[in-house]
Amino acid sequence: MKKNTSTPVCTFDPRVVPASVPDSWLSLSREIDYTPAGFYLRTCHSVRDGSTFGIELLDSRGSVVNAQPSSTPALTVLQGNGARLECVFGAGGALRLRVRDGKARLALPHLKSYCPVIFAHNADRIQVSLTWVKSQFAVTRLAGRMTLDAPWQGERVERGVIELVPRKGGWAELAIEAMQSTWPATSHSEPFDDVVARRGAEFAAFLKPFPA
Asked: 27 vs 30, 184, 186, CA distance in Å?
């Protein structure tokens, strides 16, 4: 019997198996418990909910794409209505997210109960401090246009919405990383497709000692 030497192709459902990597404190997964149905980026630190951003894909007409995400060991994809959103875990465990033929929306889900601090350092970087997960995050624009909608009402942020919009025919891209004020910024110069290839190769190397 001829031994199968081809690299296994694994696909996961993020609604069942959260997508993450060993060097990251972040994961991609479905809603849990009382959070509304959807697709979430959450922290793996010791908190019950841990959700930080709800992630939505909007098509070119501005309608939310009601499709379920799928994951391989390297890449998580959400697509529909001609739009496509991809996520990969890059350097330092940061989440790299890119979108084309539509736009990506990151929304904070818990503003009625908590008081986050959200502000833009400049057009390329937004800092988000979330009390319910006791963490800070840097959102860095890498390509395309990034906007922030976070109006204050007294001492409270009414809403927190970040949108990522590509130029026509191109990708828009950002990185999200947990941070502390004293940490240096992580370099995200590695091209997105190279990150996907590297993560896939790492998983293939992990599987190699095991029989097919």
From this structure: 10, 22, 18
| One-letter amino acid for residue 96 of the chain | R
- For β-strands 102-107 and 83-89, DSSP reports them as unpaired
The lowest-confidence range among 28-32, 62-66, 117-121, 176-180 is 28-32
Q: Which of 19, 55, 11 is nearest to 35 (CA)?
A: 55
Q: Which of 81, 78, 117 is nearest to 99 (CA)?
A: 78
CA 100 to chain centre: 15
Q: In this structure, what token pair is assigned to residue 85? A: 């959103």
Q: Kindly list the structural domains of the chain, giving each domain's residue range(s) and its CATH number in brackets, ordered by start.
A: 26-180 (2.70.98.10)
Structure tokens at 117: 């601090």
Rounded CA separation 12/20 (Å): 11
Looking at residue 73, its amino acid is: P
Q: How confident is the model at residue 48 (pLDDT cuts 50, 70, 90)?
A: low
Nearest to 95 by CA among 125, 136, 57, 140: 140
Query: 156-176 pLDDT, tens per residue?
Result: 788 889 999 999 999 999 999
Contacts 24+ apart (CB under 8 A), 17-23: 17/71, 19/71, 19/76, 19/87, 19/89, 20/44, 20/89, 21/89, 21/93, 21/199, 23/89, 23/92, 23/93
Question: The pTM is what?
Answer: 0.78
